[in-house]
Amino acid sequence: MPRRKVTIVGAGQVGATAAYSLALREAADVVLVDVAEGIPQGKALDMMHARRVAGFDVRIVGTNSYEPCEGSDVVVITAGLPRKPGMTREDLLKVNGDIVRSVISEVSRVAPTAVVICVTNPLDVMTYLAWKASGMPRGRVFGMGGVLDSARFAHAIAEAASVPVADVDAMVIGAHGDTMVPLVRLATIGGRPLPDVLAAEQIEEVVRRTVNGGADVVALLKSGSAFFAPGASVAAMVEAVLSDARRVMPACAVLDGEYGLRGVSVGVPCVIGAGGVLEVQELDLTEDELAALRGSAAGVSQGIAALGLEE
Ligand code: APR
Question: Do the beta carbons of residue 238 and residue 117 sit within 8 Å?
Fold first, then answer.
């Protein structure tokens, strides 16, 4: 069987970390594409040098053209400008929109059957743009945001409760941004509901750390934004597609009536397998949770409208 191929567009911090995470898992051969000359080639060569000692044997190629991406099973879009301190994800809307549009036109040419995973911020709007511009079925294009936000939620819970992170099950839905919705009521530690284990103030702090996780990293780094957790989250989603895992993961999906939402893409639990989003799962949310999700989606709709993409 020919080896699977994953293209990562944008060989910056997130793209390169995602490529390396995939290589360590031996999930696929990887093509790194970037407009910056030498960057994807240099990072790919560096990763290939690591093969013998890190213990993986896949091919990683760096390029400034899309020809080597031909026939990719999955394309991950991380191309764009990273968020700088004090800059909101929404500030990036216009500039990254143009980048994502240009990437999609190339991807549609060389890998028309690929599953596309969008990472570029503002993620939810970029996912909708990528889907619209591609003309692909809606399940084939989705965004990586919820897996990362849920990982940060699980980390904060594990630290607050002093438990292994593997004992935490917690999900964040909604947009990848300040309006995200950490589902406190449905989070569990070893099967026990979160509110039974942590005090109200602790839960408040856990939610704060989850929502501000990305900004906390940005503030510490001074330049650039998070990349280890985003890279690992991308790799987990790519692997779910390649292995047709049918795992339930929070993903930014283009909705068609689920949760009463249509013509917008936002984070919801999805069954991820070969072909992308196989199913959007509708959780039994409380009125408050549903209102928070819809409020979060309304912000995404504004971005979609700002780009002139509304239905
Ligand atoms: N095509 C290909 N690559 C591009 C293009 C383009 N049109 N425009 C920019 N790039 C590349 C840049 O050259 C750079 O190498 O995208 C890369 C982005 O890398 P970083 O600046 O390191 O940004 P990173 O931290 O990886 O974040 C990438 O993911 O999480 C989001 O907000 C983040 O939108 C940002 C994206």
Answer: yes
